[in-house]
Task: inverse folding
């Protein structure tokens, strides 16, 4: 069974990102060994002042646990037309270049507004591309999240829920079937 880690991409308490992440983790658990992470647990206080190149043990521990997976699902909220700053900070403290390198990554966006974090997801995908991750082509953009998503039943729109489930159920298969011999050739 593939091991997939889900990251809620904000440290905002009581976030929709965490609600969506929990839902996604539960759905994928039918097909993968899934663990949920949240940037609420990122040891932010330990990187104040910029300790690049001297990553504190608290951050290394957080990163090591997160990176110990075959694939990742990032749930990304929209903040000011972009993704949250803490998500970039998290990526900036990941080991370079090996983390994310040729690792399958799936992305879900969610926002209070009408665009469902389309821009943040695509901005984040630029970074994933830079880090040479393998981006899963199906994405979900949850618009108007406070009215369209229920943490128990998912998306209220039947059609969007079908697409969301497809992404969450097929990504574990994609991760399992990825031929790392070919990827590394
Ligand atoms: C700092 C900040 C900036 C935000 N900017 C936007 C935005 O540009 N567009 C939008 O649709 N929603 C915006 N929102 C609302 C979030 O999309 C909304 O809170 C949503 O639930 C996702 O955030 P959450 O996972 O933190 O709950 C913003 C929220 C915060 C806290």
Result:
């Amino acid at each position: 069974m593939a091991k997939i880690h889900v990251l809620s991409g904000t440290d905002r308490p009581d976030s929709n990102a965490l609600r969506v992440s929990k839902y996604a983790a539960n759905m994928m658990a039918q097909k993968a060994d899934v663990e949920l992470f949240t940037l609420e647990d990122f040891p932010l206080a330990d990187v104040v002042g910029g300790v690049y190149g001297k990553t504190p043990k608290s951050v290394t521990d957080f990163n090591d646990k997160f990176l110990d997976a075959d694939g990742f699902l990032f749930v990304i909220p929209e903040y000011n037309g972009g993704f949250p700053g803490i998500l970039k900070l998290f990526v900036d403290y990941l080991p370079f270049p090996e983390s994310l390198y040729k690792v399958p990554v799936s992305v879900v966006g969610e926002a209070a507004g009408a665009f469902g974090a389309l821009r943040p997801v695509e901005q984040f995908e630029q970074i994933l591309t830079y880090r040479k991750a393998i981006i899963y082509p199906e994405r979900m953009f949850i618009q108007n999240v406070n009215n369209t998503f229920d943490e128990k039943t998912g998306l209220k729109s039947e059609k969007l829920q079908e697409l969301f489930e497809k992404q969450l159920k097929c990504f574990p298969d994609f991760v399992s079937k990825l031929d790392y011999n070919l990827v590394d050739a």
